Amino acid sequence: MKSAMVLGATGLVGQRLVNLLLHDHRYSEVTCLVRRPLSASAFHDPHNKLRPVVIDFEMLQDYQGYFSVNHVYCCLGTTLKAAGSKSAFRKVDFEYVHIAAQLTRAQRANSFVWISSVGADAKSRHFYLRVKGELENAIMGMSQLPNASAVRPSLLLGAREDSRFLEDIAQKTAPIWQHVLQGALKKYRPVKPEDVAHNMVALQAWQ
């Protein structure tokens, strides 16, 4: 049996991912590092696998021992609007994820999967895509970090607690994009969070 650890368990993808892992017979335990206690109603845990741990993400490196699992899933992410500044956004979307990858390597977990973005490019003029690209370069360039993989979704479909203008539009116009974005443009279609969660599990190494 395997053990998993999830960061960002309360997000749109994170919730779906945790519920997926809780019903995956290959996992005996799912640890979630969270800012605040989890809502029991958000998760279905029939086999008592869920292990939520409330932490201070500013001191993430102090929780290194929790990374001693088989697979680490990182769903951390915010928006410029929610973060309030570019530096605050970068702290969540780059620094926290990068530290998580370093702790995964230090504890010799089998694999690390995180959420990036379609169009991520360290040379992009778009701040969001540039940060995502810089993070991909930083993690993929780390030595002795086995099986590091990024999923690169487009806009996510689904209801959020915080309203996101572009994702609200994507939700309403999704049927149109399914027909318009074909071939090489297919990767830009809005995606369901449960599909992203399934892709993350599929990228893990099952040794």
UniProtKB/TrEMBL annotation:
InterPro entries per the UniProt record, alphabetical: NAD(P)-bd_dom, NAD(P)-bd_dom_sf
PANTHER family with a match to the protein in the record: OXIDOREDUCTASE HTATIP2
Source species, domain of life: Bacteria
Domain annotation NAD(P)-binding: ranges: 8-127
Protein name as it appears in the record: Epimerase
Taxonomic source organism: Alteromonas australica
